[in-house]
Amino acid sequence: MANRGHFSSKFGFIAAAAGSAVGLGNIWKFPFEVGQGGGALFLIIYLIFCFVLCYPILITEISIGRKSEKSAAVAFDQLGYKKWTFLGKLGVLCGVMILSFYNVVAGWVFGYFVEIVKGNFDIGNEFGAFTTNIWRTGIYSIAFLVFTTIIVSQGITKGIEKASKILMPVLIGIILLLVFYAFTLPNSGAGVEYYLVPDFSKLSLQVVYKALGQSFFSLSLGLGALITYGSYLERHENIVFSGALITLADVGIAFLAGLMIFPFVFYQGIDPEGGAALIFQTMPGIFESMGSFWGIFIGGLFFLLLSFAALTSTISLLELPVAYFVDQKKWKRKRAVWVSGLIIFLLGVPSLLGNGYSAFFTEFITYFGTDSPRDYMTFIGDVFIDTLLPLGGFLTAIFAIHVWKKGNLVSELSDGADNFAGSWLNTYIIFSLKYIAPVILGAIFIFTVLEKFFSISIL
Ligand code: PFF
After folding, report:
1. Cβ 214 under 6 angstroms from ligand 1
2. Number of other residues whose CB lies within 10 A of the CB of residue 281
3. Which residues contact 283 (CB under 8 A, 6 or more apart)?
4. Residue-averaged pLDDT of the chain
5. Which ligand 1 atom is nearest residue 23's CA?
6. How far does residue 99's CA lie from ligand 1's centre (Å)?
7. Whether the predicted pLDDT of 70 surpasses 80
8. Three-class secondary structure of residue 367 per DSSP
9. Which numbered atom of ligand 1 lies nearest the CA of 320?
10. What is residue 374's DSSP assignment?
11. How far does residue 419's CA lie from ligand 1's centre (Å)?
12. Which of 218, 307, 320, 322 to mutate to test the pocket of ligand 1 (most atoms within 8 A of CB)?
């Protein structure tokens, strides 16, 4: 146990887990999903999912990790349920596939940092040209993966914890600053209204499953990342409280990111439904409006910190296959890190090519009954985020209540949370895992697969 490494302090664990949660998912993906999902309505459904479903699953994952002291792929076996090992392995697969495209987007962010520092604010209008220049974006994404591998190869306390502790608070500061700036701009009210006043006529199954996928993705749930982080957590730390802080930090930052972006989007007359390009098109113009000194300073800092936020997430994604090789295959950490990094890079090549450079990957797949092809990255998101993460959450809830049994879960959660057993929160957590999670996640999983991939609408 000792040689696996442990977080050295409670704050270190919270910072690392919140660092995993807070990333491109909050600042890049969340705003564009809100934009495509019709604004405030998406926000409301997302918030409900985060608190009602995700928080209970989040603390369950951490408990499974701490109890087993093993990473996702091995944890179930270690607890004595060999048949459930498939769930951990499915998580590792999701982690690898998600990281393969996440790293490409992180490379774009890093590239935007470089462009802004050079004073090239026009890059906002040149997103398409930027992503099709695959040699440049390829180098940025390789650089990003190399940063990640170096930190992960340093191990838990030296690398992951230290980086998260410093960078997270600074990021929150800069976003707050930009929210204040956003409110001073003309037409910012229209953006705030779009973001906060719901239009219920936009309700559809698509909005619901997108919000569900987003809540799982944003909280790093459903693939065992938090099982793995939980395995490095000391006994007697309060999981219930730490889990609440992680959830609040993550949701809070996503909320602030929306509050920052939509006034900027409306101020510049940009289409809020612009998809993955949204922050890349929106932010450079805003930095330009600050004048060249402040624009370069604040803009550079923004993209730099966003790169760091992405880094604390890529670290936790890479930790999934790495911990698998270390725990299961008994590999040395360094070898596990570099082999995983290489595989992930290769798997990421289609994402790099699929944003305009290669017609094959840009128009990768057309689902049954639809006529517009999806690019490779969207396809990976549809399968590994929107479909498999909620499925992972569903199976985790079933495992906790019916296989591991609620007594074991409650006793693990109570270790460090003295008043938890028998409290209203205890009742609520168990109720959510026992009834809400299986019913809602099970139903949405079936409806999503039928509607998304086969165009069969039941609702
Ligand atoms: N939660 C991260 C984000 O919002 O950017 C993405 C992520 C990290 C998903 C780690 C899953 C994971 F295991």
Report:
1. no
2. 20
3. 112, 124, 264, 299, 302, 303
4. 92
5. 5
6. 9
7. yes
8. coil
9. 13
10. B
11. 31
12. 218
10-354 CATH fold = Hydantoin permease (1.10.4160)
Q: Closest Cα to atom 7, ligand 1: which residue?
A: 220
User: Residue holding tokens 């995700």?
Assistant: 54
Taking the C-alpha atoms of residue 439 and residue 429, their distance in angstroms, rounded to an integer, is: 15
Residue 266, pLDDT score: 94
Query: In angstroms, rounded to a whole number, what is the distance separating the alpha carbons of residues 66 and 209?
Result: 30
- CA 109 to CA 103: how far, in whole Å? 10
Domain boundaries, the chain: 10-354
CB 188 within 8 A of CB 182: yes
Assess whether pLDDT exceeds 90 at residue 424.
Answer: yes
- Name the one residue in this structure whose structure tokens are 């792929």: 73
CB distance 393 to 117 below 8 Å: no
Half-sphere exposure for 427 (CA within 13 Å, toward CB): 3
| Residue indicated by tokens 């936009």 | 202
Q: State the DSSP string of 166-184.
A: HHHHHHHHHHHHHHHHHHH
pLDDT of residue 389: 95
d(CA 312, ligand 1 centre) in Å: 9
Please count the helices (runs of H) and the strands (runs of E) in the chain: 24, 0
Please state, in angstroms and as integers, the Cα–Cα distance from residue 98 to each residue in 240, 266, 298, 373, following that order. 27, 31, 29, 20
Lookup: tokens for 289 = 């409006």
228 lines ligand 1 (CB under 6 A): no
Using the predicted structure, report yes or no on whether residue 168 has a pLDDT greater than 80: no
Task: Give kind and range of the element (H or E) at residue 41.
Answer: helix 40-48
Atom 11 (ligand 1) nearest CA: 220
Nearest one of 97, 85, 92, 326 to 224, comparing CA atoms: 92
Q: Say how many Å lie between the CA of residue 413 and the centre of ligand 1.
A: 23
For residue 28, the ligand 1 atom closest to its alpha carbon is 5
Query: Are the C-beta atoms of 92 and 328 separated by less than 8 Å?
Result: no
Task: Please indicate whether residue 308, judged by its CB atom, sits closer than 6 Å to ligand 1.
Answer: no
Residue pLDDT, tens place only, 261-305: 999 999 999 999 988 999 999 999 999 999 999 999 999 989 998
Decide: helix, strand or coil at residue 407.
helix
Q: Mean pLDDT, to the nearest integer, of 406-410?
A: 96
- pLDDT tens profile 311-331: 989 999 999 999 899 988 999
Nearest partner of 350 among 110, 106, 100, 133, judged by Cα:
100
What's the pLDDT score for residue 158? 66
